[in-house]
Amino acid sequence: MTDLRLRLEDEVRTHRVVVMDDAGIGRIRLATNADGESQVTLLDADGFERIRIGAQPDRGVVTVACRTQHNDATRVEVFALDADSPDAAYTGVELIDRGNSVAGFVVYEGRPPRQWSAPQ
User: Fold this and answer.
1) Are 37 and 56 in contact (CB under 8 A)?
2) Rounded distance, CA 96 to CA 65, Å?
């Protein structure tokens, strides 16, 4: 009972809840903060963040990750941001290789889509 109470106190303090599987391994992490940001993260058995869904008052992001041969992460992010004067709303996809943004596709409200890639 003490362990459960300590975990609940930690969850209240950090605004984060971890859902465990039958083996006691954290598989889902739910988090929020005072700025209105919320996240749901799906974890592998070793804690690797496989999928993250995030929302803020003006944007949403879905990130899916895979491990490289060197145990780094390569990710793809799908995002959408609300219109905020003077900027128009936009949506896009970004490819991130070991922390470096390498390619993307963005659609801005009322403008032609734009694609880009980092020099090889």
Assistant:
1) yes
2) 9
Tell me whether residue 63 is exposed, middle or buried, using C-beta atoms within 10 angstroms of its C-beta: 0 to 12, 13 to 18, 19 or more: buried
- Global confidence as pTM: 0.81
Distance from CA of residue 48 to its chain's centroid? 12
Lateral strand order in the sheet of 38-43: 16-20, 26-32, 38-43, 49-56, 59-67, 73-81, 90-97, 100-108, 114-117
Name the DSSP class of 94: E
- Residues linked to residue 103 through DSSP beta bridges, in sequence order: 95, 117
Per-residue pLDDT of the chain (120 residues; tens, 9 = 90+): 456 555 666 666 677 788 888 888 888 998 988 888 999 999 999 989 999 999 998 999 999 999 988 888 899 999 999 988 577 899 999 999 988 999 999 998 888 999 999 876
